[in-house]
Write a structure and sequence with these properties.
This protein has 83 residues and is an alpha+beta fold. Helix content is 19%, strand content 10%.
Length: 83
Amino acid sequence: MTDDEKAPDFSDVEGGSSSTAPASGKTYTIVKGDTLSKIAHEEYGESKLWRKIFEHNKDVIKDPDKIYPGQVITLPPKEDLVS
């Protein structure tokens, strides 16, 4: 390797995380015909967990009976749900 082909020096680079994925769970985009109880049943196997999804997304969903196609919500991790 010649002086002109020196490898870059990364000795001053610090490690870190640059993930844009939500820390609290996976995202889900509402489609026509969805309800929170339907999503809860499909994702967790229990329709009654719809309230947990609603509570987790109060910044996006103002009324649990009014969700709209295209809304993106975050599903709480299954292990965080207590039925």
